[in-house]
């Protein structure tokens, strides 16, 4: 039943799946660094290979990182590696998306609880937990899509939406259809998507490569733009709403997401356009009090300079920025919509979540 919740994103290939060939269990990833040109899978037989795939962004996006972390612990357990060491390596592979640490922690807890029954039982328990997380993510995705589409209809009645999005938040990052892009897909299916504006998302082009790939496959009317063209779209009155995902939402509602999200929030506020964050409640991290406490991953400079800078040029390459809650119209999770975004409302919304 390993991949029963996986939405095929590339000609039947899911973003991630567990397989058990005779040589031993493996985690198979759709290599997102090669999309959209090539639909190539990457087979991880050990945790080191998975950690490298996470660092290289072959597997990426907060919810999918959570699944990769949980299945990574399952891989370690099934292959007899040191589970605690594997968990540390996995959780430390990328610092900002809290879902990675969450997925690893849930898997490790399931493993530890079952160890008294023997190592084989513990390996089975951790795999069952990874699959449970996978199923929860798919269900959360469906709920966010419905709630997000309803919210959009409330905030911007009339339909025929022109939605701007940043980075990639669809089936490539989820056990289901994603977060923000799942909402866009629901709007598209209801015939109300006039245009999806896709920020290219420098420097690794998750928008131009991956969101455009998903939008094209879904038959959406979409247009790719350079990140710095967004302002002129707002000026022209061509954006009805901004929908983005999140990598970590602090207790006060400050939201870390792909670099370039914060300037969009500023633009949206200036132009009186709703700025909506769509994320599973597992992305809300009540243990991180505010935006300043979120660790922002710094990526290698060559990702910026490779595109034509002189040899030796220095680069500033934070992978994420943080948008303060006062610029966010609403946070949509599978549990409900928080608007205005306050610490109290987020805490109540997360109240009954399984930790
Ligand atoms: O560096 P990435 O590609 O992993 O960054 C991904 C994002 O910033 C996404 O917007 C975020 O993880 C939400 S995915 C539903």
Structure description:
With 355 residues, the protein is an alpha/beta fold. It has two domains: 5-136, translation initiation factor eif-2b, domain 1 (Four Helix Bundle (Hemerythrin (Met), subunit A), Up-down Bundle); 141-350, Rossmann fold, CATH 3.40.50.10470. It has helices at 47-55, 62-78, 83-91, 98-114, 119-155, 180-189, 206-218, 230-235, 261-270, 302-305, 343-350; strands spanning 16-19, 26-30, 41-44, 161-165, 193-199, 222-225, 241-244, 248-250, 255-258, 275-278, 284-285, 320-323, 330-333, 336-338. A seven-stranded mixed sheet has the order 6-5-4-7-10-13-14, sandwiched between helices. A four-stranded mixed sheet has the order 11-8-9-12, with helices on one face. Helix 2 packs antiparallel against helix 3 (83-91) and helix 3 (83-91) packs antiparallel against helix 4 (98-114). It starts with 15 loop residues before the first strand and ends in a 5-residue tail after the last helix. The model has no long low-confidence stretch (mean pLDDT 95). It binds 5-S-methyl-1-O-phosphono-5-thio-D-ribulose. Residues 57, 60-63, 97, 167, 169, 173, 178-179, 206, 245-247, 257-258, 319 line the site of 5-S-methyl-1-O-phosphono-5-thio-D-ribulose. The site of 5-S-methyl-1-O-phosphono-5-thio-D-ribulose (MRU) has 18 residues, from helix 2 and strand 9.
Structural key phrases:
globular; Rossmann fold; Four Helix Bundle (Hemerythrin (Met), subunit A); 355 residues; 11 helices; 2 domains; alpha/beta
User: How many strands, which pairing sense, and closed or not: the largest β-sheet?
Assistant: 7 strands, mixed
Number of helices: 11
**Helical residue percent?**
25-40%
Low-pLDDT stretches: none
Structural class: alpha/beta
Identify the strand order in the major beta sheet: 6-5-4-7-10-13-14
The level 1 CATH classification of the largest domain is Alpha Beta
The mean pLDDT is: 95
* CATH architect. name of the largest domain: 3-Layer(aba) Sandwich
What is the beta-strand fraction? Answer: 15-25%
Going by CATH, the homologous superfamily of the largest domain would be: Translation initiation factor eif-2b, domain 2
Our measurement of the CA-to-CA distance between the termini, rounded to an integer number of angstroms, reads: 24 Å
């Amino acid at each position: 039943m390993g991949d029963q919740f996986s939405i095929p994103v590339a000609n039947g290939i899911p973003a991630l799946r567990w397989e058990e060939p005779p040589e031993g269990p493996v985690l198979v990833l759709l290599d997102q660094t090669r999309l959209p040109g090539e639909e190539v899978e990457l087979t991880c037989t050990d945790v080191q290979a998975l950690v490298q795939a996470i660092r290289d962004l072959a597997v990426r996006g907060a919810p999918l990182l959570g699944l990769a972390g949980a299945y990574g612990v399952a891989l370690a357990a099934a292959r007899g590696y040191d589970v605690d060491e594997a968990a540390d390596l996995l959780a430390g592979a990328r610092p900002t998306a809290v879902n990675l640490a969450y997925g690893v922690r849930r898997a490790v807890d399931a493993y530890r609880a079952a160890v008294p029954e023997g190592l084989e039982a513990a390996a089975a328990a951790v795999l069952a937990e990874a699959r449970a997380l996978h199923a929860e993510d798919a269900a959360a995705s469906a709920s966010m899509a419905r709630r997000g589409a309803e919210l959009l209809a409330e905030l911007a009645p009339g339909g025929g939406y022109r939605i701007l999005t940043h980075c990639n938040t669809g089936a490539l990052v989820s056990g289901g259809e994603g977060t923000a892009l799942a909402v866009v897909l629901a709007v598209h299916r209801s015939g109300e998507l006039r245009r999806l504006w896709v920020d290219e998302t420098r420097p690794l082009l998750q928008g131009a490569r991956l969101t455009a790939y998903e939008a094209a496959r879904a038959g959406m009317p979409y247009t790719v733009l350079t990140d710095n063209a967004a302002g002129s779209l707002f000026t022209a009155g061509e954006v009805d709403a901004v929908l983005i995902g999140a990598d970590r939402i602090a207790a006060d509602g400050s939201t870390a997401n792909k670099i370039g999200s914060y300037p969009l929030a500023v633009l949206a506020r200036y132009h009186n356009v709703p700025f909506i964050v769509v994320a599973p409640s597992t992305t809300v991290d009540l243990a991180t009090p505010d935006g300043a406490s979120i660790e922002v991953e710094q990526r290698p400079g060559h990702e910026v300079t490779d595109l034509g800078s002189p040899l030796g040029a220095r680069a500033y390459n934070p992978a994420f920025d943080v948008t303060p809650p006062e610029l966010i119209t609403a946070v949509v999770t599978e549990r409900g919509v928080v608007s205005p975004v306050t610490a109290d409302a987020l805490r109540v919304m997360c109240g009954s979540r399984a930790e």
